[in-house]
Fold this protein.
Amino acid sequence: MKILLTGGTGYIGSHTAVELINRGYDVEIVDNLFNSKITVLDGIEEITGVRPKFYHVDLLDKNKLDEVFANSHYDAVMHFAGLKAVGESVEKPLLYYYNNIGTTINLLEVMKKHKVNKMIFSSSATVYGDQDGVKLTEDSQTGVGITNPYGQTKYMIEQILKDTATANPDFEVTILRYFNPVGAHASGLIGEDPNDIPNNLMPIIMKVSTGEIPTLSVYGNDYNTPDGTGMRDYIHVVDLACGHVMAIEKMGPGVQIYNLGTGEATSVMEMIRAFEKASGKSLPYKITARRPGDLAKVFADPTKAEMELKWKTKLTIADAMRDTINYLKHYEKK
Ligand code: NAD
Ligand code: UD1
């Protein structure tokens, strides 16, 4: 089975490429390298022994994308490509709407032309908006209380995919709503590139540990949680990647939606302590004001994915911290 990964040199796409190749899938990648590096292909090759065919193409360039599809027949597409920096999306909303929605529309049109009818889409827990402290199921309300354009693009794309499936009964789409991906491949050869402008907790912890950022700001310790800091459902990126493999094996008619999370919530202070334990170093931090739009506790009910995809997370926060530190060591050597 041949699968095209858009955004496949990025953080989640590269880990998914590894898991797919390890299970015998034929993987090709298209990416404009806006937020990833070509050297990621070296990492994938070193881990798997296979270097995926790579197209340096912007998905906004529909003609070039059409050429990619004219070259080979794909059985399915995994659509990871997109911009994801929440803060930047507030400053540059049009860039986010244009890139995330424009790429998806181009891709759907080109897929239709080349009769490729299966897609897995990278959505986010952000579509659940401002629901706080409840275990989120796939049936929980979406679209209300989304605080930024990035989140809106995920919600809008989900709707575009549902409408596309209604119009074309041959189209099969699985929407995966990721909770908070963390960690790296156990080899340390691929991981989250600490070069992007981080606003998520783990990339900031990484930069504090290397000294690039002096102190971690803990955004509030007065939430209604056991230690007062925000709690999230952190999922190891390799578990997340395996979720894609299970999803592709279970594709079916129409639209399927799955939460990919652990079902457990971990606080910011617990994440700091876990990193310190794994690294043996203390992490400088200070308590600051809450970040606007933040919620106290966001976590998944992953039962549907467990039941239907036969997928369950296996890796822990301690594994994620160990693998992140290992990746940082490799990264620093380069
Ligand atoms: P990433 O930035 O590491 O990877 C995305 C890739 O898409 C990058 O390599 C980038 O160069 C590429 N890309 C962006 N615009 C493109 C375009 N116009 N043409 C071609 N390539 C383009 O991000 P990631 O963390 O791997 O996320 C993958 C997907 O998962 C994204 O859609 C993201 O929104 C979604 N997601 C991520 C998280 C997270 O916390 N990392 C959480 C929920 C959902
Ligand atoms: C954020 C986005 C969400 C997006 C998700 C994945 C906001 C309000 N939400 O979610 O839309 O889908 O990233 O990209 O931006 N924290 C600190 N200090 C920091 C950074 C984070 O204390 O420097 C805390 C946060 O307050 C939160 C937790 O760490 O409690 C996780 O934050 P983050 O990694 O940004 O993820 P989300 O808030 O879940």
In short: Residues 93-113 form the longest helix (21 residues).
